[in-house]
Description:
Elements: H1 2-24, H2 28-45, H3 52-73, H4 89-107, H5 113-121, H6 128-135, H7 139-163
Helix pairs in contact: 1-2, 1-3, 2-3, 5-7
Amino acid sequence: MTHDLVTALRxxxxxEAAAEAYAAGAEPGDLEQAVWLxxxxxxxxxxxxxxxxxxxxxxxxxxxxxxxxxxRLEQPYAVExxxxxxxxxxxxxxxxxxxxxxxxxxxxxxxRCPRLMEALLSPEDLTYREIAGELGxxxxxxxxxxxxxxxxxxRLLTPEVAAR
Length: 164
């Protein structure tokens, strides 16, 4: 019974999660996972819903709302988490070396990528709007540009990481 229900609901859940994810600021897969968990918990406690499709749509929207609320409440750390203070000198030196290697790789990136990555790595935790204003590009093009730059950075760092 459970397998049949899951098989029947999978396409609907995939479509609903994809439709709600962007507005919620979440990944569709994360929404799907949360809804599957809710369904399994419900099956354990109460059995299958009377109208599974209706239940699923409501569950997806509920999870999307929960995700939006959570993201509004989350605040970035003003300083590094307290757990970082007990690192020994060797760990601190290795972390500093990784930071220098990352910054050196960022400087070797093409085009606007160095400025964009420096803004993203800034300890000031700039918003997309602030970064777009600083770079003189539209806020909408910032995400694709960031993805392209991260891809370049990944290709630059892969040989260095593999060599170690």
